Every structure is written in structure tokens, then in C-alpha cells.
Amino acid sequence: MAVVAAGGVGYWALNRESAAPVTQINAATTEGDTEAAEAIDTSSIQEMVLGDPDAPVTFMEYASFTCPHCANFHNGPFQKLKSEYIDTGKVKMVYRDVFFDRFGLWASMIARCDPNRFFGISSMLYEQQKEWLAGNEPAAIADNLRKIGKVAGLSDEQIETCLADEEKATTLVSWFEQNAAADEVTSTPTLFIDGVKHSNMNWDDLKTLIDEALAG
Predict the structure, then answer these.
(1) What pTM did the predictor assign?
(2) In the CATH scheme, what is the code of domain 53-215?
(3) Model confidence at 16, in pLDDT bands (50, 70, 90)?
(4) Which one of 7, 55, 103, 145 counts the least CB within 10 Å of its CB?
(5) In whole angstroms, how far apart are CA 202 and each of 40, 50, 60, 86, 121?
(6) Which residues, including other chains, have CB under 8 Å from residue 75's CB and lie 6 or more apart?
């Protein structure tokens, strides 16, 4: 079964020339694309939340599965955030997708195929980012994503159905564009702690901000 093509709702170009440990988002949509995105009903997209929904502090991250700085964050500071604050009920995490390219969109569609497996698959995608993106060849990348989905416990039927869901792909891109515009997100990873926006940071700085929010 074919994998959906990425397009139709506008794209955001990838720029990795910045010296800062973030991937910049450059608006590449036209005015018509933006209006089209805003017109699409995105209420079917599930917000991905990890941790106690009643935790005293909310940590939200905008990230892309194809962003190398996001992988570094997830394989580093996020692991400590999860073990010390999310798993202990102090922090609730909200994950917001950013799409630079069709590969990141396909990865999200695999991760979202079973919402209960989302964060487990996300971890695999970040840990194996260099491997599944190797070669930059669409068919090979799609097959790599299928393999990750199968290892995570998805059936072949689930995987093919999710990858071929053009309506969901279009809705996901619109959801991303609406969220990014509303929160003025211009790079990934972008972090929010109780609604206050921050750029990428190391663990010590993040821990300080989380502790300050908890002391509130």
C-alpha cells in the first residue's frame, strides 16, 4: 500500500545553518495555504500527554522526529526529566508535532497509529533517528519506519492503514501549523513550562526552571 504524499496544506522549510542548538522553522506557506490550514477542523487530532494529568507543572515541547537537536534533547535532558519529574507525578508533558518534511510526518503517523504506544515509539524514533533516516531515500525510509512500528507491536495492517491515511496527514499538518502560529514557535525544540516559552537548553538549566515552577 502506498504511503501518503506530503503536501497540499503548505510546508515549512528546514534550515540547519543556525549555530544555536535548534532547528529553525522558516515560513514557506503562502497566504492561501495558511487560510486553508486554518479552515481545516483539527479536533480529531489527539493531544499526546505523558504523566499525571493533574501534575502541578505542565511541560510542553514542540519537536520534530527529523530534527537532530530534538533527538539530542530526547536522548539526554528528557530522560532525566521523565525519571525525576514526570514518572514521579510532579510534571505533565504535552508533546506537539512539528513537520519539516514528509519523513517527519510519516514518523508521526506511525507513532500515532496506536496512541497508547506513542511515547514508546517516539523514543525509538529519536534513539534510532540516524539509522531510519539514512540515505534520504523515501522508499527505504518508509520501510525503516514500518520496521520500527512492527518492533513496537503494531500489525502490518495497522501500519499500512496509518501510513495511507491522507486525511489524517492533511489534518496533522494543519494542526501543526495552527499550533505553531498560535504559540509563535520558530525553532525546534521549543519548550514551554507552565506556558512560558524557552528555547532548547541543557539539563541543569531545565531542572532549575522546573524546580522554580514547582516552588511557584
Answers:
(1) 0.86
(2) 3.40.30.10
(3) very low
(4) 7
(5) 37, 21, 16, 17, 23
(6) 126, 127
